[in-house]
Specification:
mainly beta, 22-stranded antiparallel barrel, disordered N terminus, 37 strands, 623 residues, 5-stranded mixed β-sheet
């Protein structure tokens, strides 16, 4: 259990709560009002939370013509991405220095972290960007709200829901390396019902994943198929149900130690929500049951070599009660109860290993005259394999003047070892991996404080945030120098990640807008070494200009500074430029084109692995 620490957050809280009362409605009506769920587990505006959160909406994804979610996450301040050899290869995402398995990934309310992998982290290699309504990136320790996997942050992805009428769409895209992608959807809403069904297929010959000593010059191909169904019905004024079904099937070739190898990944996800709103929606209740299953299998030729399976079944009940407003002071009390059952089995295990966990969360939210907003949560976790833990979270947001908002957050986190880290086994020509049943949970403490300026006459804001994250008992992969066997151990030192994030979202004119981000981050693994694959400097700039009512163009510039990789390899910094354009032929047809890595920059995100060279794509969309 963590003890409270005195941080600059306390000073900010005092400053905000002592400010004069004034209305901020004008700012709220004219600034970035993205609705977010991940910050407090209830719907709220981005500016009503003190947590550091970035929202990528449907328009941003469309303008960037993104193929995968990982591509656009590289533009988010505080986020680093490492891809091991092109489309379909292992892709890790780090938030503020935290390992990739310390980020909880949620899709339509389903926790999708891959329990079949050794670390239990989510591999973004297979997550395409089609049919997405918005992506929320919540930074800092969020275990109090979201549990063990959210020690470093949360990435919450919401796909599109059916809207009034019948709305079919179809998209087709082709590119170099025999790349082609097809996606279709039908959606709609009538009366009290809504539905959305989407499917996509992506195939490419790819590039050669590896370089250097173990390079196989043959291209490493990739295939990806996805199907998603969302549907819901409002039975009465107070009762509704909705469901989500997702299926993903991916196959990726890669260069093995001595032969060509391919791997498959299948994911199945489902969720059923029931919503009951009582007392004229003053008391909102939701009961949910979610299922997530992932299977990974590795083949040499047509022979199956290794197989891994992970499964999660989770039930949660959330009850939110909104107290009557008194003197322009509004309060919310939330009570959340959760239970989950996790399973893991590798090809070398006779039976599945299991972990059961239950949790209780007490949440509180308040706003005073739409000027100061406060959110707090405390969580108790009861686990079948580890000691019980308690974590907490606190954030505050307040308007100091017209346009100027201060925000701050503070929280603790716990990350339990995955079943793969405890009991897994994976053979390798470089040394076998064996699980460590004595591995202990990691703990974290993080805080951030920032100032945001909103331009009242524009849909624009700029933000500067300082963050500080500390990790104890951090999991680290170590190799025995004699047997070459590898396993995860707890580090004795305290790892840290601290730095500054700058964000700008500017609509210069009705037809021209710019998004910019910069991150400065210093990391230490507790032994005076940098954390691997986390750059000290990273920046991005994306601009979109609408030349006519029909023609628009987008340019993106991304810079990643030097960073350290395994084997004490220093990876060079690099700058990549992507260019795209779209022309709307009529209200139903749009043609698009883009060039990625327009100046054919050679660079590595992971030591020993190639990245895509200059590549061109063209597409057409129907709606």
């Amino acid at each position: 259990m963590f003890k409270p620490h005195h941080t600059p957050l306390a000073l900010v809280l005092g400053s905000l709560l002592s400010t004069a009362s004034f209305a901020a409605d004008t700012i709220a009506d004219n600034t970035d009002n993205d609705i977010v769920i991940s910050a407090s587990r209830v719907e709220s505006k981005r500016i009503e939370t003190g947590s550091s959160i970035t929202v990528l909406d449907e328009q941003y994804l469309k303008e960037n013509q993104a193929r995968t979610v990982a591509e656009v996450l590289q533009d988010v301040p505080g986020v680093s991405v490492a891809n091991s050899g092109g489309l379909g290869s292992t892709t890790s995402v780090f938030i503020r220095g935290a390992d990739s398995n310390k980020t909880l990934v949620i899709i339509d309310g389903i926790e999708v972290n891959d329990l079949s992998s050794i670390t239990g982290g989510y591999d973004f290699a297979h997550l395409t960007a089609d049919n997405i309504e918005r992506i929320e990136i919540l930074k800092g320790s969020q275990s109090a709200l979201w549990g063990s996997d959210a020690m470093g942050g949360v990435i919450n992805i919401i796909t599109k829901e059916g809207k009034a009428g019948f709305n079919p769409t179809a998209d087709f895209e082709i590119g170099e390396n025999n790349y082609h992608k097809e996606s279709v959807s039908i959606s709609g809403a009538q009366g009290s019902s809504h539905y959305s069904l989407s499917a996509s297929n992506l195939e490419t010959d790819g590039i050669s994943a590896k370089n250097g000593e173990f390079d196989d010059p043959d291209d490493d191909g990739y295939k990806n198929k996805n199907v998603t169904l969302k549907a819901g019905h409002q039975f009465t004024d107070i009762f509704a149900m909705d469901t989500v079904l997702r299926y993903s099937d991916a196959e990726n070739e890669y260069d093995g130690y001595s032969s060509e190898v391919n791997s498959t990944n299948q994911q199945h996800q489902a969720k059923l929500n029931t919503n009951l709103d009582l007392l004229d929606k003053q008391w909102k209740n939701r009961l949910s049951v979610a299922f997530s299953d992932s299977e990974n299998e590795t083949f040499s030729g047509s022979t199956s070599e290794y197989a891994y399976e992970g499964q999660k079944i989770k039930t949660d009940l959330q009850s939110d009660y909104y107290l009557n407003t008194v003197n322009e002071y509004t309060q919310r009390i939330s009570l959340i109860a959760e239970h989950e059952n996790d399973k893991y089995q590798s090809w070398s295990m006779d039976e599945k290993e299991r972990i059961e966990a239950s949790s209780i969360v007490l949440g509180y939210g308040a706003d005073w005259q739409k000027t100061v907003f406060l959110n707090a949560a405390v969580r108790s976790d009861f686990n079948s394999k580890f000691d019980d833990t308690t974590t907490y979270h606190l954030d505050i947001s307040g308007w100091l003047s017209d346009g100027t908002r201060l925000h701050a957050s503070h929280g603790t986190g716990v990350k339990n070892p995955s079943l793969g880290q405890l009991y897994g086994y994976s053979p390798s020509a470089w040394g076998d991996y064996v699980g460590n049943p004595d591995l202990e949970p990691e703990e974290s403490l993080s805080w951030d404080v920032g100032v945001e300026y909103n331009f009242a006459d524009l849909d624009a804001y700029i933000d500067l945030t300082y963050f500080d994250s500390r990790y104890t008992d951090m999991h680290s992969y170590k190799t025995d120098p004699v047997t070459w066997e590898g396993t995860y151990v707890n580090l004795d030192g305290k790892a840290t990640a601290r730095g500054v994030e700058f964000t700008a979202s500017l609509r210069m004119t009705e037809d021209f807008h710019v998004n910019a981000a910069y991150t400065f981050m210093e990391t230490d693994d507790g032994d005076n070494n940098e954390l691997l694959r986390r750059p000290k400097h990273a920046a991005s700039l994306n601009s979109n200009y609408k030349y006519t009512d029909n023609l628009s163009a987008n340019i993106g510039v991304r810079y990643v500074g030097e960073r350290l990789d395994y084997g004490n390899v220093d990876l060079d910094d690099y700058t990549v430029i992507n260019i795209g354009a779209a022309y709307q032929v009529n209200e139903h047809i749009t043609v698009s084109s883009r060039i990625e890595n327009a100046f054919d920059k050679e660079y590595e995100e992971v030591s020993g692995y190639n990245t895509d060279p200059l590549t061109a794509y063209v597409g057409i969309s129907f709606k």
